[in-house]
Design goal:
Layout: H1 4-13, E1 17-21, H2 33-42, E2 48-53, H3 58-68, E3 72-75, H4 81-90, E4 95-101, H5 111-114, E5 120-124, H6 144-153, E6 158-160, H7 169-176, E7 180-181, E8 188-189, E9 192-193, H8 195-213
Parallel strand pairs: 1-2, 2-3, 3-4, 4-5, 5-6, 6-7
Antiparallel strand pairs: 8-9
Helix pairs in contact: 3-4, 7-8
């Protein structure tokens, strides 16, 4: 979300959560911490405000959360599991979501490293080891077969991100069966949240949920 108005548009369309992107090494959507704090404070319950942070040390992540007041933190880097454990001590009342960037089957190897310290995972298509790391907002789809295996193996809820659009989210839900879906570029036009794309995406998700509930 880039503004309170965008957040309100997303909530009105049926979003269960909104993402507030802090400073990143690359990619779309970062906003200043004071704006993150203002939007997070305006999000109506039960909708959740997720702070996306690129900080990699527990102390810095905790400080970022406290500055912005977000009730959920989405850690977009593959941080040291020792830092993940320390963060759980520093922020016991904050929901912690660890992003896993799916570059191959070894993504599943990260489950036991993080699972004791987080509440959920989010699968995305970044390249954290690149010269200029990409940690989200790529618009790229990764291998959903790996994502499905991750969901089956995870002891926690798993969100799916990475190149989702109104056209492919139904297939993604059917194949991966995630707890939830997350997107940015797929519902934007010229950088702005697009009400028509947003409505189409929500409709596609609801149709996929109904089909899944019916066992199709």
């Amino acid at each position: 979300m880039a503004s309170i108005a965008e957040m309100q548009m997303a909530v009105a369309a049926g979003a269960d959560a909104v993402g507030l992107v802090g400073a990143m090494p690359s990619g779309p959507g970062p906003i200043a911490d004071d704006l993150i704090a203002a939007i997070a404070a305006a999000v109506p319950p039960p909708v959740a405000a997720f702070l996306l942070t690129s900080e990699t040390r527990a102390d810095a992540i905790a400080d970022h959360v406290r500055r912005t007041g977000a009730p959920v933190v989405q850690i977009v880097s593959h941080i040291d599991p020792v830092e993940s454990a320390r963060l759980a001590v520093l922020l016991p009342d904050v929901r912690r979501v660890q992003v896993i960037h799916v570059e191959g089957p070894d993504a599943l190897d990260l489950i036991p490293a993080y699972a004791p310290h987080v509440h959920a995972f989010l699968l995305d298509s970044g390249k954290p080891g690149a010269a200029i790391p990409t940690l989200g907002g790529t618009g790229d789809v990764h291998d959903w077969a790996i994502s499905a295996a991750f969901v089956a193996a995870s002891p926690h809820p798993v969100f799916l991100a990475g190149g989702l659009t109104p056209a492919n989210v139904g297939d993604a839900i059917a194949r991966v069966r995630p707890f939830g879906v997350d997107l940015c570029s797929g519902i934007r036009t010229a950088g702005a949240l697009d009400a028509i794309k947003l409505a189409a995406f929500v409709a596609a998700v609801r149709a996929a949920d109904a089909a899944q509930a019916a066992g199709r």
